[in-house]
């Protein structure tokens, strides 16, 4: 008994042109900002676009997300509490005033 010969068939829907048209209509964030008027914000625009427009108007007024840390190098640090370490290790102190501990191998 001989098997009937079947030609391979491919069932697909070609959406390439449709997808390309959709992607061309979507502007990336920076392109939206450059196309959008800098003088006025669009009410329907997303928040990221509006923030980018504000940044382009005056880049020095960017809001800070982090609190700046204050460091005074002249301030004395608290006395260190050195913990006991295994005998094959030892503490060494680095820095100008020997205040920065490090652990090294003997």
From TrEMBL:
This is Uncharacterized protein. It comes from Trifolium medium.
